[in-house]
Amino acid sequence: MSSAHAKKAGDPLVHGLMAEFHTPTELVEAAEQATKAGYVQYDCYTPFPIEELEEAMPHRRSWLPFLVLMGGLIGGLSGFGLAYVTSTITYPLNVGGKPLNSWPAFIPITFECTVLLAALTAVIGMLALNGFPMPYHPVFNEKRFAMASRDRFFLCIESTDPQFDLDETWSFLSRLQPSHLSQVER
Amino acid sequence: MAVEDRLQKPSHRLDGLGPVIAPGQSFGSVTDKIASIVQTPTTHWGWIVGFGIGFTLVQLLGISVTYLFLKGTYIWGLNIPVGWGLDILNFVWWIGIGHAGTLISAILLLFRQSWRTSINRFAEAMTLFAVACAGMYPVIHTGRPWLAYWLLPYPNTMGMWPNFRSPLIWDVFAVSTYATVSLLFWFVGLIPDLATLRDRSENSVGRTIYGLLAMGWRGSAQHWQRYETAYLLLAALSTPLVLSVHTIVSFDFAVGQVPGWHATVFPPYFVAGAIFAGFAMVMIIAIPLRKFYGLQDFITMRHFDYMGRITLATGLVVGYGYMVETFMAFYSGNKYEIAVMMHRFSGPYAPLYWMLIFCNIVSIQLLWFQRIRSSVGWLFLISIIVSIGMWLERFIIIPVSLSRDFLPSSWGMYYPTFWDWSTFIGTLGLFTMLLFLFIRLLPMISIFEVRTLLPESKVNGGDQS
Predict the structure, then answer these.
(1) A72 and A125 share a domain?
(2) Which one of B229, B234, B237 has the shortest CB-CB distance to A62?
(3) Helix (H/G/I), strand (E/B), else coil: B263
(4) CB atoms within 10 A of CB B251
(5) How does the average pLDDT of chain B come out, rounded?
């Protein structure tokens, strides 16, 4: 703990201060306190999704559903376009005297392409918006962080926060009574 | 609130089935229990035997396919009029089995059936491996598999394009989309658990491989939010997709005019049959796994009871499909349709038809009884009978219908040859081998989702403030 005070506030080598909790309830309360205290640049790390955190933390709207809608629309239009253009213009084929633009027969292709592109957008979009693949992130410098994928709940206030001050933020976090508190190197 | 609370806590229900997850587990204990199956230096001899059987049968598949490529499709029992035999039958059977995995992972997620959580991971894996086995068949069935890319639309010097009015090209799109989306769904579900394996790894090989696959997942709240959105959207997309896949597979037959194929009941009846066969396969896999790896706390009797009920319900829909098929044949007054029906009842293939009725309609009536649904032995037996029944159903629909065309002069019989069977048994081996590899290398139960089933995962004990 004493090492936390070895570096000055605003040190570029400090990623942030990390508090560890044992239960989701404690973490959500801590996040509510952090928001109330005016912190914006902080993140919570949990071993499973916790809905209540969305309300407790500064909220940002996700672009993902919009991107998926666009992916689906583009997929559907290109699927239908492919069937339409090839069946009527580039390779008109008379099948049993049916009209060349026999659109009901193109619906399965349209549907499958809609789903395919929407699903690819959902996955690639989620990964890209989350910044994955990310080979390095400072939080992993904290040895105890390995438990974030097991049974511990972490809150990390980052040094980029305008209100961040090594000493003040440290005492703020210790008032939340975490089971462990540490400084994360960058 | 009170009602919702009761629904969310299955242990409060009065049906005497017990909870979805046995009490006494914690975040750490579920993580250790599931991850330690993968992260252990010792490999159980049972695993080696199971994998060995699968691996040996894959060699049989390799031999069968090599011989097929050398000689052509005549080594199978195919002839004119029966041009679609065990190859297409097995394609439909395998792809149907995959459907239960998607139903469990996507549709039950949308319906907020939390019990799906302990079985969805390996059910999705089962889907992927079943689709892999299925996808192989149409390709080798073409006879010249090195030209299979002709199925895809691509600009070529011949100036030709696929016929988009054909159900066969719809099938190409449906099955490839289904395989891709199933893989994505499965992989997305795995990411947080891969991070768990990475963080638990004690050696650098595990850390590197699981770390690369986890892509730097760190459980950030904002990431979880996007993750949940993506997962829910994938479920919403997979739900109509899975229904469309077997619908389109049924179009392969229903759009044709062969008596016995040309029926409007095919799409719903094929989808129900797919889920029916798939749940049977989930139970065939789950029952030994649970026993072997001691997963009784995670896959509880409640799961088996529910799976038994779904098997019964979908089986009854399939039975209804048989009734409608028969009724419509006679009601239509079409003599060809009637002849095909009579051929099924009393022709040379009649024993198979009556076996099918026994397997798919008679045997499942036992599932009405809770005593049967709470006995894994009975469920295992019924699941095997159902799998055989669904295989016979496709036999009755595909080659048996083809064997009686419109003209008596073009009637014929179809007998599967050694190579038909060896290819089928080979794909069973491929499926087994992949499943064993999956069990050894990846967590077969979703760890992070099981954590959310524990009472301690609820903020403020689950009370909404």
Answers:
(1) yes
(2) B229
(3) coil
(4) 20
(5) 90
Q: Which of A115, A121, A140 to mutate to test the interface with B (most CBs of B within 10 A)?
A: A115
Return the SS3 of B319.
helix
Q: What is the mean pLDDT of residues A126-141?
A: 92
Residues in B closer than 8 angstroms to A113, CB to CB, are: 173, 177
**How many C-beta atoms lie closer than 10 Å to residue B193's C-beta?**
27
B9 within a domain of the structure (yes/no): no
Structure tokens at B223: 């990431």
For residue B256, the 8-state DSSP code is S
B8 has a pLDDT exceeding 60: no
Nearest-CB residue to A135 (from B164, B216, B451)? B216
Instruction: Show residues of chain A in contact with B222, CB under 8 Å.
Output: 43, 57, 60, 130
Are A125 and A171 within one domain? Answer: no
Give the whole-angstrom CA distance, residue B333 versus residue B319. Answer: 22
Q: Do A48 and B457 touch (CB under 8 A)?
A: yes
As beta bridge partners, residue A185 has A14
Of A52, A119, A139, the CB nearest to B184: A119
Nearest to B398 by CA among B382, B374, B379, B420: B420
Q: Which residue of B has its CA nearest to A144?
A: B199
Q: Tell me the shortest Cα–Cα distance from B135 to chain A, in angstroms.
A: 16
Alpha-carbon distance B303 to A184, whole Å? 44
Q: Do residues A103 and A155 share a domain?
A: no
Average pLDDT in the B236-254 region? 94
Q: Do B215 and A149 touch (CB under 8 A)?
A: no
* A122 to B26: CB separation less than 8 angstroms, yes or no: no
User: What's the domain range around B282?
Assistant: 35-153+163-455
A142 in any annotated domain = yes
Q: Give the ipTM.
A: 0.91
Tell me, yes or no, whether A109 and A90 share the same domain.
Answer: yes
Counting the structural domains of chain B, the total is 1
Where does the pLDDT of residue B173 fall: very low under 50, low under 70, confident under 90, or very high at 90 and above? very high
Q: Are strands A180-185 and A42-45 parallel, antiparallel or unpaired?
A: unpaired
Looking at residue A6, what is its pLDDT? Answer: 44
How many domains does chain A contain in total?
2
Pairwise CB contact (< 8 Å): B200 & A133 = no
Same domain for A164 and A122, yes or no, is: no
Token duo for residue B271? 């989808």
Quick: pLDDT tens for A53-87: 888 887 778 889 999 999 999 999 999 999 999 99
Does A101 reach chain B within 8 Å, measured CB to CB?
A: no
Q: Which of B219, B221, B229 lies at the smallest CB-CB distance from A65?
A: B229
Mean pLDDT of B301-317: 93
**Predicted pLDDT of residue B143:** 84
Query: What is the domain range of residue A96?
Result: 64-129
H helix or E strand, kind and range, residue A185:
strand A180-185
Nearest neighbour of A119 by CB, restricted to B28, B153, B234: B234
Q: What is the pLDDT of residue B15?
A: 54
Q: Which residues of A touch B159 (CB under 8 A)?
A: 90-91
